């Protein structure tokens, strides 16, 4: 089973379910034009984020790692008109492309793109009493995932959902001897899910156009 097959199945799913649309396509095109890396979630994954937000009845969402706002648009579409999505992005160029894409999606009123290192922005969000958030999507620098997870719990309420992208890392998650900092950080998140009484959750492996990876999905108890 190959990457070619995983991509073919993702394309089939996108077409058959009508997952994409001109706004999402335009966002990906502006990302490419702006030289942003094509590391957004897939359409099928974006739809999962949208569904989780809808199921949760989310009104406040916090995203860490905006890139061009592709995942932001998916989640933003699940919010009611008075909802709020704060998304944190380190790179000002990524943030500028994201703002334009979010505007194109008609979500500027709901989405707040904050530029800076997430670990600097998070204390400000706490000080502003911007929370609690109903759903978190953690998808930035992977080495900080345990720190972001801790912040998510801190800004949550019982029942909040925390999703962490890219934790399986082509199977690296199972390698106890790995010295890769991102893999070690993923393992720490898994360890927290198994041992931290504040949360419960699972890890789901995924294949598709973005390769072999997976999500940690947690709920605050
Ligand atoms: N969620 C996006 C993809 C995010 S890619 C989507 O699916 O569409 C990861 C992003 O995290 C990049 O844009 C990168 O610049 C940003 N990032 C990296 N380190 C960061 C940090 N310390 N704080 C905030 N954002 C960071
Ligand atoms: C990378 C980052 C991501 O968030 C992702 O989904 C895939 C790849 C990366 O940094 O390479
Ligand atoms: Mg990701």
Descriptive overview:
The mean pLDDT is 98. Helix 2 packs antiparallel against helix 5. The N and C termini lie far apart (38 Å). 43% of the residues lie in helices and 20% in strands. It has a single domain, classed as 3-Layer(aba) Sandwich (Rossmann fold), CATH 3.40.50. The protein is α/β, with parallel strands linked by helices and 221 residues long. The structure holds S-adenosyl-L-homocysteine (SAH), 3,4-dihydroxybenzoic acid and magnesium ion. 3,4-dihydroxybenzoic acid binds next to loops.
> How would you name the CATH homologous superfamily?
Vaccinia Virus protein VP39
CATH class category: Alpha Beta
Number of helix segments? 8
Number of domains: 1
The residue fraction in helices comes out at 40-55%
Extract low-pLDDT stretches: none
Give the helices and strands as they follow along the chain: HHHEHEHEHEHEHEE
Rough shape?
A: globular
User: Which distinct ligands sit in these coordinates?
Assistant: S-adenosyl-L-homocysteine, 3,4-dihydroxybenzoic acid, magnesium ion
């Amino acid at each position: 089973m190959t990457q070619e097959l995983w991509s073919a199945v993702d394309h089939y799913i996108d077409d058959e379910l009508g997952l994409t649309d001109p706004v999402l396509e335009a966002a990906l095109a502006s990302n490419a034009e702006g030289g942003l890396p094509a590391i957004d979630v897939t359409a099928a994954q974006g739809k999962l984020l949208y569904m989780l937000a809808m199921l949760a009845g989310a009104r406040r969402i916090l995203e860490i790692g905006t890139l061009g706002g592709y995942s932001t648009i998916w989640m933003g579409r699940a919010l009611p008109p008075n909802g709020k999505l704060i998304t944190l992005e380190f790179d000002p160029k990524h943030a500028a492309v994201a703002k334009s894409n979010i505007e194109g999606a008609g979500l500027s009123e709901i989405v707040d793109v904050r530029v800076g290192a997430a670990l600097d922005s998070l204390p400000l969000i706490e000080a502003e009493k911007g929370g609690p958030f109903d759903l978190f999507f953690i998808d930035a620098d992977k080495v900080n995932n345990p720190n972001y997870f801790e912040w998510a719990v801190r800004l949550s309420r019982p029942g909040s959902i925390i999703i962490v992208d890219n934790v399986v890392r082509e199977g690296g998650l199972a390698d106890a001897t790995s010295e890769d900092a991102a893999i070690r950080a993923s393992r720490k998140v898994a360890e927290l899910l198994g041992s931290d009484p504040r949360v419960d959750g699972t890890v789901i492996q995924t294949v598709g156009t973005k390769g072999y990876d997976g999500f940690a999905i947690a709920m605050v108890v």
